[in-house]
Queue: 3 jobs
Job 1
Amino acid sequence: MGLRINLAVLGFAALASSTLLAQDNPGGSAWAAKKSAWLSLQNNQRDEVFRFADHYKNYLAVARSAQSSTTEIVRMAKAAGFVEFTRADQVRPGARLILPTRERALVLAVIGQQPLTAGSHVVGTHHDSPHIALKARPVVGAAQNTLATFQTVYYGGIKKYQWANVPLALVGRIDTTDGRTINVSTGLDPADPVFVIGDAAPHSDKDLRSRTYVDVLKGEDLDPVVGSIPGEKTGVVAEVLRLLKEKYRITEEDFVSADLHLVPAAAPRDVGVDRGLVGAHGQDDRLSTYCAVKAITELEGAPAFTALAYVSNFEEVGSINNTGASSQLLNSAYARLLSGQKGSQTPELDLRTALQRAQVVSADTNDGLSPLFPETSEASNTAKVGFGVTIKRYGGGFDGNPEFIAKVRGVLDKSAIPWQTQTPKVDVGGGGTIGRFMSQQEMEVIDMGVPLISMHSTFEMASKVDVWYFYRFMKAFYGTGM
């Protein structure tokens, strides 16, 4: 009897195992046969992956906003021999040019051997990320005026409860009527104070427990503590304002012309005992930005076609404003470069031709398969962390043209870069980032990315091997003659 039971158990286990294998590899599917990108590394490439990730973390540590990211990108570009574009005669094959835009967006260009009207290769990214911004009149009293807090408004899609009880840093700038720009950074240095959105204690939060998942904290609840010591003859709010005025030499009204963000103060860290993941705020989408900048700064000589790294702003709120992708920023960059190739009286037709013949990778991170909530993805079309670069297929008119997708696949395969696809669940996920704005200019566009865990949270996670392969793909794309 015992033997029969054991045989039955073994038989059931074998059946279950074969069922799982069939699910994992239905009909010998090519997708099921794909392995972790870590297993595709050769020789000393793993060491290279980890070195690249260390440099990436260094960038994330200082690039906490679009403005500070722009500053760091310009520094990186100048260190690689790029110079600011100031004259049309700078546009010659092999020239390495910076076209900045209001200190929050920019274009890097390596001029190719062919004229822009023959084509160009663009990687478009954005480097803004979800954060919490200060209102124009930010300092108010709280807890019966025993504390002072910042009044805030959140930026981009966030889960508001994730920002409670997290040490926050204040970064950005204040511009004054006497022409000064005061750069602000408080909370990133371990010696700095930080700001914290306080939660309710579990001992007294009974009336709050009926709030829904997304409304555990409401938008007007995102007010971090900024001070607690009253002045000798004044309250806490007045003392906080006095300290801010003293530190930055500003008036209270100067906050009206300030751009100040609260961001997680934590430094980028390795995640896991194997150190395979990078954890940090702002990887959507400073990840793609770093890869694009690193790839273009490493190009040698003059590529066949001009290579452009286009770094935009405000994507998380619709690519608005004059540094967002819905502006004429990129068109203006093309027009300025064309003036060096065609003269100052460049016909409109030349600009339209240059845009129409441009080939674009719209690079942005995407949601990866969640370890806790896999049901939020559609299993057969989800992207998995550690399995390489993602080609996004949204449907609904957001996809690249198939002939262009095929060319990009060829670059990936020729360069031995692991890749996968992602399509969100129907009626659940959306599609398209800045690519739609470039498509409107008749540019040939494909959306690609790298999967993240905990996307849009205060601490996103990305696989180091995916980031490295994305950079390598961009470098190959810039250099290809397709």
Job 2
Amino acid sequence: MRKCKNCLLPDSVPGADIDASGRCRACREQHDDLRERDEALRQEYEADLSRTLATVRGTGDYDCIVNLSGGKDSCLLLYRIAKEHGLRVLAFTADVNIPDVAWENIRRTVRLVNVDHVVYTPPKDFYRKLYRFLLRNQEAGGAVRTVCYVCAPLYEGYSIQVAVEKHIPLVLAGYSPGQPDPSRMKYEFRRALIEDTDWTPPEVRESGLFSEAELRYFWNPGRYSEGTRFPRYLAPFHAWPYSQDDNIRKVVELGLIKNTTKASPVHSNCPLNWLLMYSDLKNLGYNPYAPEFSKLIREGKASRRYWRIMAPVVDNMIRTQTFLGRNVRESLKDLDLKTDELRITRAAQTDDTMFPGRKPKP
């Protein structure tokens, strides 16, 4: 597979357009004025974040919720908000596919930062049925986009619900720049998404496989009375200067995470992700996280040297289902799926098709 000599983007990624010099289109189109525009926008976000953190301080029992998944960024975010900014934080974890490494990171971080921590464990049977349906009916963007863009909104919705019930004005997530897709979120979820939109995926509702009780796991503001106050939902690492390597070093130095291996996203990520990457390598011909990490490399936020070595190692583990790649076999077994059932059957989703409902009824 040919890759961009600058950012390592594979030529199989749509739009890569690697030229004779070995550079992809994104690298060729990267200009100082674009970098200046992005930096100006980041500084605008940073100023808003500073104002927001000052505004919410002392407004209730908790100033904010920090979603804690056990990855390097969420652990560091919790530390910075609680210790550096002095806010009263409620850490929130949704216990869905969290590996042992991430649980160890969560426990160490909560103990060191000394904050209250809520863990919500949704029904495993619901998620098993959901994953089976989604993997057998993927959209054109592949398995990661299909599954993660249903699973992540569930987690986000759980934390928003806790914030509403406890009158907490702010939810913070440890998304790195580029997460989630910018079409869905740039620093902040749009107010209309939180206040006016039913997040139940149409394909899930229309499948007829899920009960009304199961569909209620998805965020739906229409279940709340008029006048309900909904929180803002921000991604601080979209506002602060970001470096993947610096964040890994920092969480280890602070003692939040035991070592750099356990801080690596390769080790702390959701085990199901290995099956999703396997499906996308099979159906799309490239690792779905390659564009995200290439963008971070292009912007100087991730190490090219690290990912030049690690990306092929990860792909090889997935294809051979060895070492961490054994999660491919284990997930197939847990979900009772065969590899030929990992199918793309639907057109690509847009923001309108993902979140079509507005002012829904309870």
Job 3
Amino acid sequence: MAERILIVEDEINIATPVKTYLERAGFDVAHALTGTAALQMLEETPPNLVVLDLNLPDIDGLEVCRRIRALSQVPIIMVTARDDDIDKIVGLEVGADDYLTKPFNVRELVARVKAILRRAPVTARQVGGILTHGAVSIDRSRHEVRVADELIQLAPKEFDLLWALLEERGHVLTRDQLLENVWGYSFAGDTRTVDVHVRQLRRKLGDACPIVTVWGVGYKVGDDASAA
């Protein structure tokens, strides 16, 4: 069965070519003109990925993203007409997995959809394994992260990023390496998404967060003492 993509876009001249290219790539594509319609479609027929415009006629795209995250961990690619770092960072902080700025190359969007979906099944396949570091425990089969006995809710890419760093503990991973390992592609030099997700992990894990910044290089998981 083809994977289902939900496009949330009120501009038909953008939605039509995106839908066409995704269908040519073998996806089953649904289209919603408004945030309200998108949320209803999400509940009725859950998609495998959402392409979400930031500027919608009824509900702000950021609010739609928040509401989707309250219902599902489906991957979200956010699209914005403004080349504004604040919009991109806020979008990632409320749960988007990726972003594109209009105008964009439709082929690039299709490539990003494929890259994200290649990694999404890792959780669905329930690959076994538990990694621990200090008070932090990450269980891949259950897709759970705990600090001591407290369950911590992480977005899919936050979970994948934490796993990637813990799996390579002691080694410094550059932002480009993390983009390749976790997201599956390069942002052509724009690595801010890694920093935003690390910031989110530190906020959610608190003092137990094991991620150490190696200035000018990237991130690593050090020993327990340095991780605090």
